[in-house]
Inverse folding.
């Protein structure tokens, strides 16, 4: 993929691609049994999506992810934030 593709995405979303790549990297290598890591990822997703994740929702998401011991993909994240997913 070339720079113009990424610039196009940045202009449409307002999110720098460096931040998207950093989040993708964090998700790829995260320990989803570590509550602190899971909270950090949820907060970062909310920040990138420009949506405030209420503490009660964050708690529910963290509990669900940590207890299930499963990883999270971008579709899951979109669903968390009320997207179409």
């Amino acid at each position: 993929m070339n720079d113009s593709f990424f610039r196009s995405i940045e202009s449409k979303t307002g999110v720098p691609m460096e931040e998207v790549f950093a989040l993708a990297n964090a998700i790829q290598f995260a320990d989803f049994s570590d509550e602190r890591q899971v909270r950090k990822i949820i907060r970062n997703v909310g920040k990138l999506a420009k949506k405030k994740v209420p503490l009660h929702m964050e708690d529910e998401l963290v509990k669900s992810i940590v207890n299930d011991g499963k990883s999270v993909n971008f579709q899951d994240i979109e669903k968390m934030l009320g997207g179409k997913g």
